[in-house]
Write a structure and sequence with these properties.
Elements lengths: L15 H19 L3 E2 L5 E3 H8 L4 H6 L1 E4 L5 E4 L4 H10 L8 E10 L11 E10 L4 H18 L5 E7 L3 H16 L7 H9 L2 H4 L4 H7 L11 H16 L5 E2 L11 E9 L7 E7 L3 H4 L7 E7 H10 L10 E5 L2 H16 L4 E3 L5 H10 L4 E5 L1 H6 L1 E6 L5 E5 L3 H4 L3
Parallel strand pairs: 1-5, 7-8, 12-13, 12-14
Antiparallel strand pairs: 2-4, 3-4, 5-6, 6-11, 7-9, 9-10, 10-11, 14-15, 15-16
Bound molecules: adenosine-5'-triphosphate and magnesium ion.
Adenosine-5'-triphosphate (ATP) binds next to strand 6, strand 10, strand 11 and helix 12.
Length: 415
């Protein structure tokens, strides 16, 4: 019988990559607490309309990338392609308005039917942070400052820049949109098929196109700056002065738009030059119009998400993950010692030591495995030692060994 293959675009993560993945999540958990973001857990699937109404029917995510299916009850469901829409739905259905401004964070798997390649998968994972019910530019700044601290604590800021743009308020954005339609219409025949299609329905998307035929025209496209209302300029100014006050470096990226339709005002990406085409590690912005698209009241909000796999690749490349050695390796010799050492190992682990214990092979094999573990000390326990309530403590660096009573071992190994 043939072994079934994994689904295309999914990954079985192991080794340094898996350690880096866990390190990203642990660091995020620590940093989000410093910034006082509360943890939320969200369903992996939602009614399809949660995404189609909020993200926008004409975006790539909704039109091409969603994993949607009918369940046995005939309802159209979708595996979440992003966190924000589901969190917005939860905010409305649970009455979380009472907690506004609500700062929440989560992480987990997302699903998009994309062309798999390095840094781009069909099941991937994100860390995510949102501030809901906050119209103040300080919220945008705080989120960006948190993202910056996270990348710094992960040790991966080399070659990473924060690209920042404003999409303006509704009026600025509409005027910009009209100018973009007019501009791109004049070049329609030279654009990619996708962008010809986007032209009338969603011209901002052309700015985000990765097709070289479109990129040629993006450089000279009308800029949002020429259409920004005074209010929108003021808002953006407060975000950037907030970043400056916190010493967060940023670069203005006037044609940066995001892959989803709901963004207003601030839009940003942390981009690296180290991951080839998949260079965006963290992206987000303000989504003041999203709650209304889900039938809720006007609710200003801002958030970001970062791909854990992409961050983990940078962590591995930066050499931030060293294989962890145990504090000690226990080598039991004989059946009675094996049982006794299970107890000894449990006692030591309960006191906070990391302990490797070997059950396989002869004495020589067990010793060589203890050496390979990278532990500083090996505890060798045979029948003699057992009878005396002692163990042989071997310093694997120097080769010195001494017999000690079991209770004296933690002190000897410096625990
Ligand atoms: P891209 O332009 O790379 O497709 P995006 O704009 O679609 O990214 P977002 O929806 O903003 O991405 O998601 C935020 C982050 O999630 C991205 O910056 C990236 O790190 C990660 N991400 C998005 N899609 C994938 C994927 N298919 N595989 C791995 N990571 C992904
Ligand atoms: Mg995408």
């Amino acid at each position: 019988m043939e072994t079934p293959q994994a689904i295309r675009g999914t990954q079985d993560i192991f080794g340094a990559e898996a350690e880096a993945f866990a390190h990203v999540v642990e660091t995020f958990e620590r940093v989000r607490k410093l910034y006082r973001f509360r943890r939320v857990e969200m369903p992996v699937f939602e009614k399809t309309e949660v995404f189609s109404r909020s993200i926008g029917e004409t975006t790539d995510v909704v039109s091409k990338e969603m994993y949607s299916f009918e369940d046995r009850g005939g309802e159209s469901l979708t595996l979440r392609p992003e966190f924000t829409a589901g969190i917005a739905r939860a905010y409305l259905t649970n009455g979380w308005q009472q907690h506004a401004p609500l700062k929440v964070a989560t992480h987990g798997p997302l699903f998009r039917y994309e062309r798999p390649q390095k840094g781009r998968y069909r099941q991937f994972h994100q860390i995510d942070a949102e501030i809901i019910g906050a119209a103040e530019p300080a919220a945008d700044a705080e989120l960006l400052i948190m993202a910056d601290q996270l990348l710094k604590e992960l040790g991966i800021t080399d070659g990473v820049t924060l690209q920042l743009n404003t999409l303006g308020d509704a009026a600025s954005r509409d005027a910009w949109r009209a100018a973009l339609v007019e501009y791109f219409r004049a070049h329609k025949g030279s654009l990619s098929e996708d962008s010809q299609d986007r032209l009338e329905r969603n011209p901002l998307r052309i700015l985000d196109s990765k097709d070289p035929r479109d990129k040629a025209f993006v450089a000279d496209a009308p800029r949002i700056d020429d259409f920004l209302s005074g209010e929108a300029q003021d808002f953006f100014g407060k975000v950037t002065t907030g970043l400056d006050a916190a010493g967060v470096a940023w670069t203005r990226a006037p044609s940066l738009v995001r892959g989803l339709d709901y963004y207003r005002h601030t839009a940003f990406e942390f981009v690296t030059d180290r991951l080839g085409a998949q260079g965006t590690v963290l992206g987000g912005g303000r989504y003041d119009g999203l709650m209304e698209s889900l039938g809720g009241p006007h609710t200003p909000a801002v958030g970001w998400a970062a791909g854990i796999e992409r961050l983990a690749m940078l962590v591995v490349d930066a050499g931030e993950i060293a294989p962890e050695s145990p504090d000690l390796a226990i080598v039991p010799l004989g059946a009675a010692a094996e049982t006794a050492c299970l107890g000894l190992a449990a006692t030591l682990r309960r006191s906070g030591l990391s302990v490797e214990i070997g059950f396989r092979g002869n004495m020589k094999k067990r010793m060589s495995r203890a050496n390979d573990s990278g532990a500083r000390f090996a505890l060798i326990v045979g029948d003699d030692e057992l009878a005396a309530g002692e163990a042989m403590v071997k310093d694997l660096a120097t080769g010195d060994q001494e017999r000690l009573p079991l209770h004296a071992i933690p002190a000897r190994i410096g625990a």
